Amino acid sequence: MQAISAIQLLDLIQSRRTCYQFASADTDPVAEEALLLCLEAAIWAPNHKLTQPWRFWQLKGQTRNHLAEIYAHNRAKKKATDHCDYECIYHKALDKFARIPEIILVGQVLAEEATTRKEDYAACCCAIQNFQLMAWGQQIGVQWSTGPILQDPRTYELLAIDSADIELIGALYIGRLKEPCNPVPARRKPVEAVFAQLD
Ligand SMILES: Cc1cc2nc3c(=O)[nH]c(=O)nc-3n(C[C@H](O)[C@H](O)[C@H](O)COP(=O)(O)O)c2cc1C
Q: Rounded to the nearest whole angstrom, what is the distance from the C-alpha of residue 21 to the centroid of ligand 1?
């Protein structure tokens, strides 16, 4: 294994931010090899009983266009106001979606048993964090979204999956970094606030 110092690893973890804006895919696209490295990191996440419950779909072309319509519909339904009605929000949402360079949906294969399902969700979350860290290490930003497209039956139809078998748990919006990718400063409680040592 190539050495990476503890401080370098902590810096990677601490500097990673959820990104809401990205460099343009036209001028600064995300290389397929870079995404494959992120997926490689993801599948090495810990998972109890080696269930490997994660599934990933990269959306391109017509499939992506259909997802954009589902995204815009959900946004317009929720956010329409007198100031900007359904059509107005719908088109803004389509524009916003079109500016996301790459989209990967993440699903969890649903186990029969409740405890296994819970563990499998945890494993999928570990996989997503591995993905995000590998992305960040390559100057690629990710927004992990759990927005309404993941609950929309049309998204399941689009992927040709049954919601009884697989639950969509994350939409990863991905692009090369454009500073600042997130205007809100990073915040965490200090370790002392969340950690106790018991003798
Ligand atoms: C399970 C999960 C679901 C999330 N869902 C969303 C989401 O729907 N939309 C969003 O903007 N960010 C989402 N996030 C990202 C968090 O909002 C983000 O991690 C948090 O604000 C801390 O920011 P940081 O990632 O830059 O440290 C999600 C994160 C997790 C772990």
A: 14
* Residue 133 Cα to ligand 1 middle (Å): 14
Q: pLDDT-derived band of residue 102, with 50, 70 and 90 as boundaries?
A: very high
Q: Given the CA of residue 129, which atom of ligand 1 is nearest to it?
A: 31
Q: Tokens for 128, please give them.
A: 């997503």
Q: Is 191 inside any structural domain?
A: no
The count of structural domains within the chain is 1
CA 199 to centroid of ligand 1, rounded, Å: 35
> Is residue 109 in a domain?
yes
pTM of the model: 0.97
Per-residue confidence (pLDDT) for residue 2, from 0 to 100: 73
For residue 172, which of 38, 15, 72 has the smallest C-alpha distance?
38
CATH code of residue 158:
3.40.109.10
List, chain by chain if needed, residues with CB within 6 Å of any ligand 1 atom: 17-18, 143-147, 182, 186
Q: What is the pLDDT of residues 14-71, one digit of tens each?
A: 999 999 999 999 999 999 999 999 999 999 999 999 999 999 999 999 999 999 999 9
- Domain containing residue 133: 18-182
The answer to whether the CB of 135 falls within 8 A of the CB of 141 is yes
* Residue from 21, 34, 5 nearest 134 by CA: 34
